[in-house]
Amino acid sequence: MSLFHSLADLGQYCIFMGKVFSIPDRWKVFGKRTVAEISKLGVDSIPLVLIISIFIGAVITIQMKLNSTSPFLPSYTVGLATREIILLEFSNSILCLILAGKVGSNITSEIGTMRVTEQIDALEIMGVNSANFLALPKIVAFVVFMPVLVILCMGTSFVGGLGVAYFTEIISYTQLVEGFQTLFIEWYVWYGLIKSLFFAFIIASVACYYGYYVKGGALQVGAASTRGVVSSSILILLFDVLLTKVLL
Predict the structure, then answer these.
(1) d(CA 10, CA 7)
(2) Which of 118, 130, 141, 244 lies at a 20 to 30 A Cα distance from 30?
(3) Domain ranges of the chain
């Protein structure tokens, strides 16, 4: 079974994207909807990002310390390895896999409910490009706000690691800070931000697609949400490999 279940679905996704990325009929309405979607999809995700990041940062620090007990390793090894894991993978790829479940299912269920209740049909009857009207603000909002979530994730993850050093005796606070600062490569931050933009587009666009073409009732909306999350996750992992090869 292919990612979109068939070549027909893949073609339908491409056609859907063609409808989505057209010039909005009313820019003022598009702007208001985009701001509202930034609040709903982005700002409302901040608490989840902060909670996950602080605990994952702490866990990574503890695990790196427990697996770096060799006396031949320099003192900054734990901090350096923790920093690289956070910047290169957790703050973008793993974070987006988590957000695919929260944001993706939210988008699919919202648009899917509008489809089964015939609200999208009503928009079409009024001559509105429903794909553009519903999906474009969500995609633009999530892509625009994703770098903010990634930066918050990076910072909070480091705070979680520092919390382990400050409140426990697992690792020296000074050694951890030294590791965070040693051999820092600025491009790794940009690398994470660039990857997150691709992942944000995948999450929002795939979720919109599955919601827009729901057929049936409430049960099918739930099934579409599941398929959207699974498809987004697989695409994120695929593009993670491709972007890593290209950017690094």
Answers:
(1) 5
(2) 118
(3) 25-247
